[in-house]
Structure formats: C-alpha cells, structure tokens
Amino acid sequence: MAGVKKKAKNEGRTIVFIDESGLSQRPHRCRTWAPRGQTPVLPYPFNGKMLSAIAGVTWWNFYFRLFPGAIRSPQIIEFLSHRL
Fold first, then answer.
1. Residue 18 — pLDDT band, cuts 50, 70, 90?
2. Distances in whole angstroms, Cα of residue 25 to Cα of each of 10, 31, 45, 48, 51
3. Which residues, 6+ apart, have CB-to-CB distance to 28 below 8 Å?
4. Using CB atoms within 10 A of its CB, is residue 79 exposed (0-12), middle (13-18) or buried (19+)?
C-alpha cells in the first residue's frame, strides 16, 4: 500500500475507499402461523423493491449516494465523477 500512496501523491491523485450495500424493505425473517388446514397469509408485500447505498472515504471527506435498484458500473462511475 505504501507504494500506491506514494505514486498517488506524486501524480496528485486522491485515494478513495469505496463500499456499497443493498437495502430492502422486506423483513429479514418471516414467521407466521395459521390454524391447521388453512394457508397462512403474510401481511408483507414481497415486491423486491430495493435501494442501494454507495459511500466513499478519503483522508478528508466522506461521500455517499443512494440509488434505486442495484448498483452497477455506470452508477459507480457517476458517483466517482460527481464527487471527485
């Protein structure tokens, strides 16, 4: 890592540590019950709507952005180009 830091400093670049995470509105665990012989009905919509968060940390700043759906390469490029 020391060589990377030195090269980045010489070239005037910023090192950013990035991570992303997906969030869902669905419950993590679902337990239910119903009287014997009847189908249990779950009150939660399992529609698969998702929100994703991406964050970047530099020595001086913290950046984050939320995206609907999954994060792919275009969202990462957009995040980096708008933040740095």
1. very high
2. 45, 16, 9, 8, 9
3. none
4. buried
Mean pLDDT of 62-75: 92
Measured CA to CA, the distance from residue 27 to residue 16 in angstroms comes to 33
**Alpha carbon distance 47, 62 (integer Å):** 32
Burial of 80 (0-12, 13-18, 19+ CB in 10 A): middle
Distance (Å, whole) CA 50 – CA 2: 38
Whether pLDDT at 78 is above 70: yes
Give tens-digit pLDDT for 24-61.
877 666 677 788 998 887 766 666 678 999 999 988 89
Helix (H, G, I), strand (E, B) or coil at 28: coil
Residue 73 has φ and ψ, to the nearest 5°, of: -55, -45
Question: Which residues pair with residue 19 across a beta bridge?
Answer: 55
Q: How far is CA 77 from the centre of its chain?
A: 14
